[in-house]
Structure formats: structure tokens, C-alpha cells
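Sample intake sheet
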Amino acid sequence: MPEGPSIVILKEEVQQFTGQKVVSVSGNSSIDINRLQNKTIHEFKTWGKHFLICFNGFTVKIHLLMFGTYRVNERKETKPRLSLVFANGELNFYTCSIKILEGDINSIYDWSTDVMNVNWDPKKAKMSLEKRSDKMICDVILDQDVFAGVGNIIKNEVLYRCYIHPESLVGKIPPEDINQLISECSIYSFEFLYWKKKYELKQHWLAYTKSTCLRCNLPIIRKHTGDRNRRSFFCTNCQKLYE
């Protein structure tokens, strides 16, 4: 599943179509795609893992899910879920979820929860964590209402950086460590973006998919953790379990 930084890259790649009219639309999406015909794109936005194509009065929300892909100015052999053709190129989406959101997009999304948005609010994230004190941090850090854009790679890398065991209870983690974790969710997301653009993201992974702790030279534990049952990679020696 693409994480927030990858969706930001998508937004950057399609800026050439801002202000352009959709001259042709097709695809096997269940939405009323004909509604997009001859409509002009006002802007592209992102919120966490959501890619937003904003028209006058409505927005097309695209979520790439686990295996979704897109192509700019080229196509795959399979039929797209949504294909938008412009005078200067085309944009195609495959194996994804597509919905139409009515009205002002700013009244639908809380931009302050997106770790890569200029309106990101760490204080709000801290208050949200306090309300989830009985939850495992591995679950809360993936909660898009708290850390929009954070996915499983970022989760593992941030917890490793902060020396926190993924099965720690939020309410038992010291406040200073909570503050660091909140900061790192945003910091690492921007580093992720920088590394991915340079095609070197995997070179910087410290915990994700690793077998040995770089700090302790001990085995990295691989385990599906929390209610979300997502893969965690952690060292039981240097990542403290707060319970």
C-alpha cells in the first residue's frame, strides 16, 4: 500500500494537468465517470494516502489500496479503473478505489492530521494519543485519523528510531518519548519522500524487513502485532516494551 510520501510524488507528477479540461474519460469504475467529461481540474491535493482530483463543486478521491498503480502519459495493457485524457497528455489509474466527494473538499478533510501537510498539528496528534491510551502504539501510529499518511514502513522505522517496542501501550510510554515519536512521524515521512525520489529508499531502512538489529547485532523479531495484525520488525533488546 503506497504511503503518504508516494502519494505526494504522484501529486507532483501530475501538476501539468492542473487547469486542464478532461477531453475524454473512460474506465471500469462504478462512479459516474461521464460527469468528468469536459470538466476542468482546479487542483490536485493529497490527504494521507488519498489522492484528490478537485473539480468545481466535487472531488474525485482515489485510494490505491494494496496493489493500485497509475501511469502518467502511458498505459498498461489492462483496462484502467479510470482514464483521464487531456489536450497535453493522459492520467490512468488501475486496481484502486474511486469515489466522488461532493462539496468543498476543505470541509471534508482535516488537513492538520496529515503528517506531510503544512497545517500538520503535533499537539492535536498528542491529544489523540491520550484518548487512545489503552491501545498498542503499533495500531495507533497507523490510525489515519491521528497520523494520516503513515504506513507500515514508516511505523516500523519510527518505532525503531525511538527505541519503542510496537506492542507498547500508548498510555505507558513516557511523555518525552511520545513527543519524539510524533515528531519522527513527520520527519521520517519527508525523508522517505526524499529517498524515494532518489530511488534509494530501501538503502535507508534500519528495521523494516531486516533480520539483524544494527545497534545490538541481535535478531530482529518479525511478528504480526496489534488489532491491525500488520507486520512489525523490532529488537526486543533496544526497543523497550511499555505495558
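Comment: The longest helix spans residues 175-197. The helical segments are 4-13, 122-130, 137-140, 152-161, 175-197.
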